[in-house]
Every structure is written in C-alpha cells, then in structure tokens.
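Worked problem 6 (solution included).
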Amino acid sequence: MIKKAFGSTKPKDIVVDLMTFDRLLTKPVIHLIYWAGLALVALGLFAVLGGTVGIAMREEMPWGIFLAIPFLIGGLLFLVAALLLWRSFCEFYVAIFRISDDLRALRAVTEGTKPVAAEPVANPIFTAPVDTPAAETGETDVLENPFTAPKKAD
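Solution. The predicted structure is:
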C-alpha cells in the first residue's frame, strides 16, 4: 500500500514527497474517509430505529404506532439522502485528484520528462477472435461501427 501511495518504499522518497507536495495523499486516504462516513450513516440508521421503537413504546398502543411510522419513513429517507450526498462528495474529491494527476502527466509530456504514474489504469480494448463465423463470411459486426456499417440488401 505504501508503494502504491508513494511510488517508492524508501524513507527518503516518502519524506521528500510529503514535504514537497509532489504526490497527493488524499487519493489513497479518501477510501478510509468514505468507509468512516458509511459507518456514521449506519449509526444513524440504528438511531432512527431506536427512536422509532422509543416513540412507539412511549405512547399508548394505537397512537404510538401512528406516530412512529412517519418518524421511521422520514428517518430512512434522510439516511438515503445522506448516503447519496456522502458518496457524491467523496467521488467529487476523487475526480478532482484524478484531474490533478492528468494535469501532472500533461505537464510532464509537454516538458519532455517522464510522467509520474499514480496508479495504472486499465483500458481494455476488445478484439474479436479471427475464427468467428462473421470473420469467415466477411460480414462486419454492427456493434463495431453501427453508423457506417453497410446494410444488407434483402
């Protein structure tokens, strides 16, 4: 994990990166912050359930349930909204730091230096096998290029 965050395991390189802000540490740390926020949302869920049971038990039988149901529904809606907002907040910060990495790579390319890769990004390219029936008949796959593929005459 240290090598992924800093690019090196040498203490000198880690200290230099920390002191000069050459490598941003928020990207690896944001995952821990996200899970901590989810734990707080889970605690909020237990608080809503406890409050619902408390309201239902405090009042007399029919009125307690009628008061507890709106509290439960409102609390669950609030927690779903909090969960979505927390997720979007964390994704925003990840996107900002990815933009920072892209800008650093662009600067390195324009200056002619080797870019510092934060982490490898997979970019899979699909290539169809040669021994497919479409390759034998000479037909092209419509999904390959749906706008310029020639249509078959019926």
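Discussion: The helical segments are 2-6, 11-20, 26-58, 61-111, 133-137.
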